[in-house]
Write a structure and sequence with these properties.
The protein is of the alpha/beta class. It has two domains: 244 residues, Aldolase class I (TIM Barrel); 56 residues, Alpha-Beta Plaits (2-Layer Sandwich), CATH 3.30.70. It contains eleven helices and 13 strands. The protein has a nine-stranded mixed sheet. The chain has a two-stranded antiparallel ribbon with strand order 3-6. β8, α5 and β9 form a beta-alpha-beta unit. α3 crosses α5 and α5 runs parallel beside α6. The longest helix is centred in the middle third of the chain and has 13 residues. It starts with a helix and ends with a strand. The model has no long low-confidence stretch (mean pLDDT 95).
Length: 307
């Protein structure tokens, strides 16, 4: 039972990250998320199980080699190419093994804590020289909270600084337990209105805001609010004013980081057989983001623009 609790499904381990906390960091992306943000740039982290991505542009017409390899009958011929029934796909990866053009790739790998720590330790000299460390991200890393807690605990035992990038949409007892082994919390705030938040992410923000208050009150780790700036969606004066009011109401003021919307992950939706609903939305310019920052300053908080 213990070994099972120490296994997690990892999307990737990204080295030399400089935007997931101070210094040079290793960011571990865990699979699974409770939210479905319309602008999500990492849709491959949303579902908890192992998935298969399909890059049609790499596929050889009329190859069909993968069709016969799928015991679940999730892959079928679709004209000169193939189609994947996502409901049937188990993520076994047998189709990937025969696809030498790598049109099919597995997303997610089961790893135990020791395996992840082995990768983390390779970058220890960079943490020590830059004041960096390890960041758990996703998805929502606390979707796999037992694994996340154990990984953070063992990092702390080894003297490695830890950060948690979280949506905050999690039971307080789980979050509180995790924070015992966390130095920095990167806390996502999407929208202040609960109904708008639900439309945009699939869930209300009640739990998220309450957990933010609790972290502030309990003098837990360094708290940084990360605000994705989605043009025309959450950057209007009303929402920004409510954000500023909420921040100023906290016992301890967090740092505020603005993350401009980008389209770098849009192609992933097609590869996962999903639709990207914000297909016409364009990233904000530097001047646009600067004006958002200036508006927040008029409401009494000074943000940092993260690019």
């Amino acid at each position: 039972m213990e070994s099972k609790l120490q296994k997690g499904v990892i999307v990737k381990i990204q080295r030399f990250s400089i935007q997931d906390g101070p210094g040079i960091r290793t960011t571990v992306f865990l699979k699974g998320c409770f939210l479905r943000c319309l602008w999500c740039s990492n849709p491959e982290t949303q579902e908890p199980g192992i998935e298969v991505e399909y890059s049609k542009e790499k596929c050889i017409p009329q190859c069909y080699e993968c069709v016969g390899q799928c015991d679940a009958k999730a892959i079928s011929k679709d004209g000169e190419y193939i189609a994947i029934d996502r409901k049937k796909c188990s993520g076994c990866g047998r189709c990937v093994e025969v696809c030498y053009r790598k049109a099919l790739t597995v997303v997610g790998e089961e790893m135990d804590v020791a395996e992840v720590l082995n990768e983390i330790e390779k970058d220890r000299p960079f943490y020590e020289k830059s004041g960096g460390g390890v960041t758990l991200s996703g998805g929502e890393p606390l979707y796999q909270h037992r694994f996340a807690v154990e990984l953070l605990r063992q990092c702390k035992e080894r003297g490695i600084s830890t950060a948690l990038d979280t949506t905050g949409y999690v039971d307080w007892d789980i979050l509180k337990n995790t924070l015992e082994y966390t130095d920095i919390v990167l806390y996502d705030i999407k929208h202040l209105d609960p109904e708008e938040h639900k439309k945009l992410t699939g869930v209300s923000n009640d739990v998220i805001l309450e957990n933010a208050r609790r972290i502030s009150e309990k003098f837990f780790p360094i708290l940084i609010f990360r605000i994705p700036v989605i043009p025309g969606i959450n950057d209007n004066p009303k929402n920004l004013k409510e954000l500023a009011q909420f921040v100023r109401s906290l016992s301890n003021l967090p740092a505020i980081h603005l993350l401009p919307y980008h389209r770098l992950g849009v192609f992933k939706y097609t590869r996962l057989g999903r639709e990207y609903t914000l297909k016409n939305l364009q990233p904000p310019t530097r001047d646009y983001i600067r004006r958002v920052a200036e508006l927040l300053e008029t409401f009494g908080i000074r943000p940092l623009i993260v690019t």
